[in-house]
Design goal:
TIM Barrel; alpha/beta; 8-stranded parallel β-barrel; 296 residues; 46% helix; 8 strands
Length: 296
């Protein structure tokens, strides 16, 4: 049976005005696009949402705005924090607001301690009743999650129902995990969808990512679900130049926001300081790639 969460969950950017204040009015426009394009769900307050650059008050207001605008689209909220108490607090708030799930990455650790990390997820699971998406993203957390650790979590913490896997090579790790636990965890890819085709071949149930044209990834997931492999491959390889362009180290978020702005979904492509805004030359290159892959 295919998981009800199968498909594309769009990671929402947090829109800002030119003065870096949150543009709450643009949030419903982004969510409307997610629904129109057939996304299975949306994910707010993740790395793509610049959650580390938000105040707690902004974080709560954004969560409320996302859920009040969701119009039936399942909402996963990022509740990662550097203390277990804070992660529990954010997760309880997400559940109270009506989130369908929470996404939690490893807290920052001076030295990785897998027993402490296990306890972090175990304590959280005892405090909420909605599913937990465990995020394996060592590039931002600095914490490696070995397959043995993921297997233990799957076997001992039932509340962790999904894994967002962003530890390349992701297809290889998917196969290793599934050889241990089968379909116990629904596994999502991320990283802009750059490995999506092979992740789906290896048994992932979709993607949680912020690619500015989510309809492309929606269609790839649907073709793979229906067994239409050649159609999925054609779509993936046609749009791969743009997927790769978005994945540029250090400026990927600025590129995605420029893509959303190019589409008219947000008023400004502002990224909050200390991140830099996208250079004019890069924006021109982005527009050229969008046109080249047929999305103009």
């Amino acid at each position: 049976m295919v998981d009800a969460f199968y498909g594309m969950h769009w990671m929402l950017a947090t829109p800002f005005m030119e003065n870096e204040q949150v543009d709450y009015e643009s949030i419903p426009h982004i969510i409307r696009k997610a629904k129109e394009t057939g996304c299975t769900g949306v994910v707010g307050l993740g790395v793509m949402g610049e959650v580390a650059r938000l105040t707690d008050d902004e974080r709560s207001l954004i969560a409320e705005k996302i859920i009040s605008s969701s119009d039936g689209v399942p909402v996963t909220l990022g509740t990662t924090a550097n203390s277990t108490i804070a992660a529990i607090h954010y997760s309880k708030e997400a559940e109270r607001l009506g989130a369908s799930a929470v996404m939690v990455s490893a807290p920052t650790m001076a030295k990785t301690n897998l027993e402490t990390l296990f306890s972090h997820y175990d304590r959280l699971a005892k405090e909420i009743s909605i599913p937990i998406v465990m995020q394996d993203y060592p590039q931002t957390s600095g914490v490696e999650m070995p397959v043995d650790f993921i297997t233990r979590v799957a076997n001992e913490i039932p509340q962790v129902k999904y894994l967002k896997l962003e530890d390349p090579p992701t297809p290889t790790k998917i196969s290793s995990i599934k050889s241990r636990i089968g379909d116990r965890l629904g596994i999502f890819g991320g990283l802009g969808g750059v490995f999506l085709l092979d992740e789906l071949r290896r048994g992932s149930i979709g993607a949680m990512t912020g690619f500015a044209y989510p309809e492309v990834l929606v269609d790839i997931c649907q073709h793979m679900k229906m067994g239409e492999i050649s159609e999925a491959e054609e779509l993936f390889y046609r749009h791969l130049p743009l997927i790769q362009f978005e994945q540029q180290e250090g400026i990927g978020l600025a590129i995605r926001k420029s893509g959303l702005h190019h589409r008219g979904l947000i008023k400004f492509p502002t990224v909050r300081a200390p991140a830099g805004q996208l250079a004019h030359e890069t924006r021109s290159e982005l527009e050229a790639v969008i046109k080249r892959v047929g999305l103009e």
